[in-house]
Amino acid sequence: MQVRRAERVLIIGLDCATPQFLFGPDKFDLPNLEALRKRGAWGLLRSCDPPITVPAWACMTSSKDPGQLGIYGFRNRKDYSYDGMTTANGASVKEPRVWDILSRAGKKVAVVGVPQTYPVKPVNGWLTAGFLAPDKSVDFTYPKTLKQEVLESVGDYIFDVKDFRTHERDALLERIQDFMENRFAVVKHLLATKPWDFFMMVEMGVDRMHHAFWRFTDKNHPDFEPGNKYENVLRDYYQTVDKHIGEMLSLVGDETNVFVVSDHGARGMYGGVCINQWLIQERLLTVRDELTGLKRIEDCDIDWSKTKVWGSGGYYGRLFFNVKGREADGQIEPEEYESFRDEVIAKIEAMVDHEGKPMGNKAHKPEDLYKEVKGIAPDLIVYFGDLGWRSVGTVGFDSIYTFENDTGPDDANHDFHGIFLMDDRTGRGGQEMAGLQLMDIAPTVLEMLGVDVPADMLGRTIR
Amino acid sequence: MDKGITVRLTGTSVAETTRALATRLVELGRKVEVIEPAHAERMGGDSGAALACRLLSRNGVIVVCSYEGREPEGEWVEAEIDAHDTPEFAAEKILDGLAEAGVLALESSDYTPEEEEQIRKRLADLGYIE
């Protein structure tokens, strides 16, 4: 099927929106999204590796992989020092994104809340930054005058949910809902008042809901209690989002091609692997501290002369090797680097869980995942238990497994597949599509809008 | 002294783009003068305006002009505004051109150390990092 040219393209991004709630047997009742699915095409959208908000949205909008972007997560090594880390914000994305290309082609764009858009860069249109902007005191819009316009017309601009790690769930739920309502209010204001050709927004609240309330709704989660007061909060939240999407679609007109996409999915998280605790156990990491309680690895006194590997926590694991001639007190001979890396991979993939069952871990070399490896990548990228377990960097646990998150309540992890819905007005009638990935979105949008697709984009046009 | 130059705008949305460009140049710390058709009239016409461009630009001023007729004197460039561009984006394109020509340096903004720490804490609170 040919790509149908469109006057306008709208991308509705729902961070972490997960296929089981839209397409699975227990899908929620979401009339607007379901109508979109029945009119157009739908499927699973494979995320990048790692399947994390940063770099996933940047991969989608640039059609480059994390290695090409040199962005392997929110925090990346800026050099080979032991503590030199930097946050991957908008300035870290050196590749043009779909709205940059469209701007240069004379298309008017509007971009709302997409991660890694602060510090803001000029666009041919209007942009409000995503959640990596510090606060409202900074210039978080382009043009700068849009900031006042948004604050006057909507009343506020919420970057993210405050005080996320809390057991006060009622208050947290209210804050996430406020965040979502604010995001859609900004979107509707811009949809109605700006002459855009391309519009993209990202709603982050879906992700926050999953992390905060998963255990209350997932009947397979070990901590699920039937009849709990939050049992339907995810369904209710998705339904409110669906209502807003319906209102958005009523504003955009018939000549608009519409996408609803997510950067990754979600799944239950059952525990954490204390990666540095495991490295200590394997005698690959030595800390001088007397560990009488929990301590962040960043706060530990690491004996680098007796350390070959250290790790970072998060929804996936990152391992960094201490290589002679590269790190200041390197302990791995460069010629032994590859064989040592293979040894560590074998050990990680042979790990068993707390019940002695194989975890199904996967450890990847960056060069095997990416077309190029720019910047400083982790030496290994690790998924524990197919992402059923997170990586915990803190040390001082009495086991390498923990069922308490060291950063507070969190019952969901990311999953490799997000959602894809597209109504390109070609009468696809609910066509299921397979083999889609994040990087296919940008070239498809460009082709729909009649703009040449750069040859170095990794994705393919969805037809 | 900063290098001066005259930028002559043509095309659509000239007045709006002139304002957007002048605003950005002031933000970048540059001395700016705007010579629109009404100003040229008060200078006795296009020849007076052309001379003013030379006098100002040789003293480090960036002159943004849109009067018609005689070309500006001194060093000058013409910028034709794309009808599809917003005034702000058209101004940014002109700034890019001036930066490439070595007339000015564009700022590259990033977090301050305090902002970086603020964001790091936010990411830790959200569970992305520890």
* Structural class by secondary-structure content of chain B: alpha/beta
**Number of helices, where a helix is a run of at least 4 consecutive DSSP H or I residues of chain A:** 13
What's the helix-strand series of chain B? EHEHHEEHH
Structural Rg of chain B: 19 Å
Describe the secondary-structure layout.
The complex is a heterodimer of chains A (463) and B (130).
Chain A: E1 8-14, H1 19-22, H2 31-39, E2 41-46, H3 53-62, H4 66-69, E3 75-77, E4 85-87, H5 98-104, E5 109-114, E6 125-129, E7 141-142, H6 145-154, H7 169-193, E8 198-203, H8 205-217, H9 233-252, E9 256-261, E10 265-268, E11 271-274, H10 275-281, E12 309-312, E13 317-321, H11 337-349, E14 362-364, H12 366-369, E15 380-383, E16 389-392, E17 401-402, E18 412-415, E19 417-423, E20 431-437, H13 441-448
Parallel strand pairs in A: 1-8, 1-9, 2-20, 5-6, 5-8, 11-16
Antiparallel strand pairs in A: 2-19, 3-4, 6-7, 9-19, 10-18, 11-17, 12-13, 13-15, 14-15
Helix pairs in contact in A: 7-8, 7-9, 8-9
Chain B: E1 5-11, H1 14-27, E2 32-35, H2 37-42, H3 46-57, E3 62-65, E4 76-81, H4 87-100, H5 113-126
Parallel strand pairs in B: 1-3, 1-4, 2-3
Helix pairs in contact in B: 1-4
Question: What can you tell me about this protein's structure?
Answer:
The complex is a heterodimer of chains A (463) and B (130). In chain A, 29% of the residues lie in helices and 20% in strands. By secondary structure, chain A is of the alpha/beta class. In chain A, helix 7 packs antiparallel against helix 8. The mean pLDDT of chain A is 95. The model of chain B has no long low-confidence stretch (mean pLDDT 93). The longest helix of chain B is centred in the first third of the chain and has 14 residues. Classes of the chains: A alpha/beta (463), B alpha/beta (130). At the A-B interface, loops of A face helix 4 and helix 5 of B.
